[in-house]
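Order emerges. One example.
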Amino acid sequence: MVTNSDFNFATNETVTLELPFSEHMEELRQRIFHIFWIVLLLTSLAFVEVKILVKILELPVSNVKFFQLSPGEYFVSTVKISFYTGLLFSSPFAMGQIILFLLPGLTKKETKVILPLLLSSLCLFGFGLIFSYYALIP
């Protein structure tokens, strides 16, 4: 336990507390648990609204429709579309949880670099989605 015996709080020294391995694993378990439930929630929300998603996916190609060759294929394709949509929209939250887990172990110099890297990677990810939707699908 870290104590300050002279009660001198005027200095801006950061007090770092080292956690035992079990506490790190507990924090990692909680963050993975949160990520799992967000992915599950967004996947189920996408499953409810899958007809709108299919129309959005069919929009760039005008004369091609999704078709199923077997009776169970419609359900499997619906689950796939819902899962990928939930994974796509939960990825910023998952990246944030991973960064929040790793942030206490980084130095000051590394923490200054991590935010621009995170924002630029999310922007490039969005540009990649837009490019693939408008340039690669048609």
